[in-house]
Structures are given as structure tokens and as C-alpha cells.
Amino acid sequence: MKALRRTLIATTVLAAAAALTSCSSGVAGPAASAQPTVNSQATFAADSTMQKIHDAGKITIGTKFDQPLFGLKNPTTNQPQGFDAEIGKIVAGKMGIPADKIEWVETVSANREPFIQQGRVDMVLATYTMNAKRAEIVNFAGPYYVAGQSLMVRKGNPLGIKAPQDLAGHTACSVEGSASSTNIRTLVPTVHVTTFDSYSKCADALKNGQVDAVTTDNTILAGLRSLDPDSFDLVDVTFTKEPYGIGVAKDRKDLADFANEALKESFSDGSWAKAWDSTAGKILGPAPQPPVLGKY
Ligand code: GLU
To answer: How far is the CA of 78 from the centre of ligand 1 (A)?
Structure first.
């Protein structure tokens, strides 16, 4: 864990230094820090959730803090950077809330529903798969991306793992409360599953030989590997569909509807693609076609 945290910090500092260099040479800095449009004229129905948030002048968003490309806390600014954070800024901006009025709260996989239910966050954007079980307790807007579960192994793939079934009898690491841990147990009942509360801890466990593979979304694995390509290989397989949604409280359907509308606009006005290209797209390639809202 410590090792990966150090790498995360070092990488972020390097990225910040690179951004400074590119700014001073006249090249635009990373668009990840660009501010999405803030609609200061936004108006809402008097008793709506959006009006309450607008009146408060701030919004609380839960995201991951240790997932490169999607939500990785920058130790200098204390702000998370990545595609989830950018989409959060776009939705907040359309509500009239600027990025510096977003209060970011770390959510790990297992506390996303509880934090929404307890009102500790207004929205969760955290590589958060929309599924029927979760939709019984929270409202979802989206999807705003569709990932797929995959595998990461030690460099050179010493066990020759090509598919989830090859993990039979081996040990895979995943995260408590994630769709990934449930999926792998269902798909390969004989796999031994070690769980932590975050995927960066799984990457450390893989590196030190405690587990044979890490399994979660291809997006998360690509981000973790990008920090330490000499230690890890990605297996070129995806075996689930993970549509990423924005989670809000069950009694705040108006906020989910608003977020869907904001996503729809971001798909057509180019801000969604720009958010992708400036974050996850740097490793995962150009933005795909935007997903179909409501389909999961
Ligand atoms: N997308 C999956 C989920 O929401 C795995 C990634 C994660 O745990 O954040 O459970």
C-alpha cells in the first residue's frame, strides 16, 4: 500500500511539474484542470433538490481518491483528478456550482450506497456500476461510460492467465462491496478471493506475490498499470459490462433527472468527450460514442 501510495504521489507531482513546464512554454496545461462552464443563471422549481443545492452554493460529491484516470487525489491541490471528477464538475456547473465549491469526499466501493443514504454526499461518481440491486436503494443517472471487468497480472504473466476461468485454484484480489468481487465469485467458484477496501492495495498485493491477479474494471486496471508498467501486465479480456452511473438518494429523483439532462447536454456539446480526452483518454484512447442514457 505504502509503495503504491508513494508512486501515486510521485506520479502526480511529476504530472503537476509537466503541466507547469508546458504552461510556461505557451502550451495549454492539462484540460483536466480546465473549469467546466458554470451556469450562474440556472433556475429551478422552488422546492427542488437543485434549488436547495443552488441556495447552499455548494455540493458534496463522493469519488475515489486512489484511482488514476478516474479519481486520484492530487496531494498539492487536495482535489481529485480524473474522468469521474470532471463529469462531477460538469453536472455541478450546470447547477450553477463552480468547481471550487465542490466538497469532495472519498468514497470506497463499499460505502457508496451508505454515504448516499445517510446524506453525507449529494452525488457519487466513483466508477460506480449501475445495476438493479443498487437501484433498489439509490437513484442512478447515466451511464456516462461503459467499462468491462478484466484482469491484471504480474509482469510476464507467469501463470499464463488469459481468461477468468484460468484463475481456478489461484488467488485473485478485489474490493469489498464491488461488483467485481461478486462477479468473479459467481463466474469462477473455485477462485480464492482476497479483498481490500481499495484497488491500489490489491495492486500492492499483486506486486509482492500475495495474490495472483487483480480483477476489476479494465479502466481501473489500466490506470493502476500506468503507474507501474514494469510490474504489471493487463490481460486482454473483458467479461462483464459495467455502466458507470451517478448515484443520488432514492428520494431525490429530481436530481437524477437533472444529472441525466446534464449528461445529455455534455454528450452533444463536446464537454463529455473533452473530459474523457483530458483524463482517462490519455491511456485508454480517444472517447468512444457516448453511451445510451438509461440503458444498463
Ligand atoms: N464498477 C464496479 C463497481 O461499481 C467495480 C469498480 C469499483 O468497485 O469501483 O462495483
So the answer is: 23
